């Protein structure tokens, strides 16, 4: 069996290596840093990522180390506020989830949880090892690790925004750097607002946000501080944070203490192709954008989740090239959309032009009340940020049989719903494909499980399991093939068993 090299042990690389190992592939993971990072960086773990952590078996460890935020609050002034209750909005069949909150977990804790998980699968991170170059040919990849040539079947670049893998394959990283500078602190605040929520304070002078962290009065605060001709990366001072609060908060607030501070500029860049022969780019190596919306780390983790099961199959035996190409076909549009939306959000929340300042100071409060006053808009927004609405409608892996009016289509996320015992995601948990059969199909289920022993789990959804029937939009007979990354590959409505078996045979 061929070996895969994962370069970089950030959240993306750790997920990638762990998923490859769980799917039975031989993997090595290296990181040039000699020790794990200890800073908090990405803070918000989105509901879709928590679903993924549930699949990996690490969700309890993650939940124990972070804190739940139930709402996002836009605070314009003392009277004018818009509160968006996250849990209450993730209740539609499409976005229903076991984890309906924004979850605040420091990135180093996320990395610790994933590193422990990886170790439990028998893979250790090789630290202090730097990839300095690579070349590929039709049979494999020669990677230079600290200058020493080592041969692999595949290489996955999870080595962040300055990816050496990307440079080695000559892949452009198109985009730009924003002129605006930001300062950020993990701090203890003394103010009247309750702990445990997310606050955004748009004001004429700029943008300021405070995201709850574990611990009394602890928040991540960050905001823009203007554009300087030449970048200034000096450590921000206590006075700068206090001034930012005084200028932009409509209520008294004091920074009691900072635990970690950072000054940075942001980029919007992406690669045109996520795959080049035997080399893949994943996470920040493939796309970087403003953290507005807290999407970056979550997107990288899900890139990895998308690619790992496909690549593991390629290592176990002949997998069609189109299966590997589907990684780019599915995830590149997600990355591109993210670059566009975060860019727009960034322009509004931190732009210093007259229009952006006016929008924040005057139009914002009115617009926010009007727009966010609509429940449908709030539901759409939160479901999108939660990454529960991401779908791959044009995926080459999609197949269908028949037609339907309700419920998910091929390329959509598998929906969560309760069953007679447990829930749909309990059935999906694991590395297998899943077949959900609606109707009297016990014999068919047994035949499928016998044919694809260990590789497919087949579950008949009974007539009385109405929550699942409603979620999947099936009133009579129907069938779904669900991929190991919990996306729908095939839907039949009504179900013809021979067609479903033919789909499975072609797929597996
Ligand atoms: C201040 C800040 C706040 C953020 N907030 C959020 C947030 O709230 N939510 C969110 O989703 N995202 C957020 N992000 C973005 C998030 O941190 C990144 O998207 C995430 O770290 C990307 O993970 P990654 O594993 O792809 O890359 P990285 O975390 O950059 O990891 C890359 C790894 O590769 C290693 N490496 C690099 N080059 C080599 C080499 N040549 N050889 C071997 N190893 C190498 C590095 O040492 C590193 O460990 C934030 C980012 C910052 C800076």
Task: Write up what this structure looks like.
The chain has 508 residues and is of the alpha/beta class. Among the domains are: 3-63 and 104-174 and 268-351, FAD/NAD(P)-binding domain (3-Layer(bba) Sandwich), CATH 3.50.50; 399-507, Glutaredoxin. Helix content is 35%, strand content 29%. The chain has helices at 11-22, 47-56, 59-65, 86-89, 107-120, 164-168, 238-248, 296-316, 321-350, 354-372, 375-385, 424-428, 442-451, 466-472, 497-507; strands spanning 3-7, 26-31, 44-45, 67-69, 71-75, 81-85, 102-104, 125-127, 131-137, 140-145, 148-152, 154-157, 174-191, 198-203, 206-212, 218-227, 253-270, 275-276, 279-281, 287-288, 399-402, 433-438, 456-461, 478-482, 488-493. The strands form five sheets. Strands 6-5-14-15-16-13-17-20 form an eight-stranded mixed β-sheet. A six-stranded mixed β-sheet has the order 8-2-1-12-19-18. Strands 21-25-24-22-23 form a five-stranded mixed β-sheet, with helices on one face. A hairpin with a 2-residue loop joins strand 14 and strand 15. Helix 1 runs parallel beside helix 5 (107-120), helix 1 runs parallel beside helix 8 and helix 8 runs antiparallel to helix 9 (321-350). The chain is globular, with a radius of gyration of 24 Å. Residues 7-13, 30-33, 41-44, 107, 130-131, 158-160, 164, 184, 262, 264, 283-284, 291, 294-298, 300 line the site of flavin-adenine dinucleotide. It holds the Pfam family Rng_hyd_C. GO terms for molecular function: FAD binding; oxidoreductase activity, acting on paired donors, with incorporation or reduction of molecular oxygen, NAD(P)H as one donor, and incorporation of one atom of oxygen. Residues 3-341 form the FAD-binding domain. Its cofactor is FAD. It comes from Longispora fulva.
């Amino acid at each position: 069996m061929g070996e895969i090299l994962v370069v970089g042990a950030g959240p993306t690389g750790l997920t990638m290596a762990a998923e490859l190992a769980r799917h039975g592939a031989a993997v090595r993971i290296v990181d040039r840093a000699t020790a794990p990072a200890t800073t908090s960086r990405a803070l918000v773990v989105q509901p879709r990522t928590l679903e993924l952590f549930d699949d990996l078996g690490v969700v309890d460890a993650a939940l124990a180390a972070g804190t739940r935020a139930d709402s996002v609050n836009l605070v314009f002034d003392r009277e004018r506020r818009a509160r968006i209750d996250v849990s209450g909005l993730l209740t539609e069949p499409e976005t229903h989830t076991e984890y309906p909150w924004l979850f605040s977990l420091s990135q180093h804790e996320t990395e610790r949880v994933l590193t422990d998980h990886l170790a439990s699968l028998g893979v250790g991170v090789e630290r202090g090892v730097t990839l300095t170059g690579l070349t590929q040919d039709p049979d494999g990849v020669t990677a230079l690790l600290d200058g020493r040539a080592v041969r692999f079947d595949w290489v996955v670049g999870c080595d962040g925004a300055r990816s050496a893998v990307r440079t080695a394959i000559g892949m452009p990283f198109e985009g730009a750097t924003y002129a605006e500078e930001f300062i950020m602190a993990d701090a203890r605040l003394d103010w009247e607002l309750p702990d445990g929520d997310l606050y955004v304070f748009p004001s004429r002078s700029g943008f300021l946000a405070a995201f709850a962290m574990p611990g009394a009065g602890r928040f991540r605060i960050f905001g823009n501080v203007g554009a300087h001709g030449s970048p200034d990366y000096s450590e921000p001072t206590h006075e700068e944070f206090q001034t930012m609060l005084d200028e932009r908060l409509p209520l008294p607030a004091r920074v009691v203490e900072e635990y970690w501070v950072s000054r940075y500029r942001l980029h919007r860049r992406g690669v045109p192709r996520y795959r080049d022969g035997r080399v893949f780019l994943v996470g920040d190596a493939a796309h970087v954008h403003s953290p507005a919306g807290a999407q970056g780390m979550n997107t990288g983790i899900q890139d990895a989740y998308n690619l790992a099961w496909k690549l593991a199959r390629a290592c176990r035996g002949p997998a069609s090239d189109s299966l590997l190409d589907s990684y780019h076909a599915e995830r590149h549009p997600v990355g591109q959309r993210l670059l566009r939306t975060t860019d727009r959000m960034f322009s509004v929340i931190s732009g210093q032009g007259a229009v952006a300042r006016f929008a924040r100071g005057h139009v914002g409060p009115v617009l926010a009340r009007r727009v966010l006053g609509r429940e449908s808009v709030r539901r759409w927004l939160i479901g999108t940020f939660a990454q529960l609405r991401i779908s791959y409608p044009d995926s080459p892996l999609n197949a269908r049989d028949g037609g339907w009016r309700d419920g998910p289509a091929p390329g959509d996320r598998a929906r969560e719903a309760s069953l007679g015992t447990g829930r749909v995601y309990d059935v999906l948990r694991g590395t297998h494909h899943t077949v959900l059969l609606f109707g009297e199909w016990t014999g068919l289920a047994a035949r499928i499980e016998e044919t694809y022993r260990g590789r497919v789990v087949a579950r008949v959804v009974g007539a009385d399991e109405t929550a699942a029937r409603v979620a999947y939009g099936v009133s009579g007979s129907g069938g779904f093939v669900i991929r190991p990354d919990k996306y729908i590959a095939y839907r039949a409505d009504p179900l013809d068993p021979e067609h479903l078996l033919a789909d499975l045979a072609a797929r597996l």
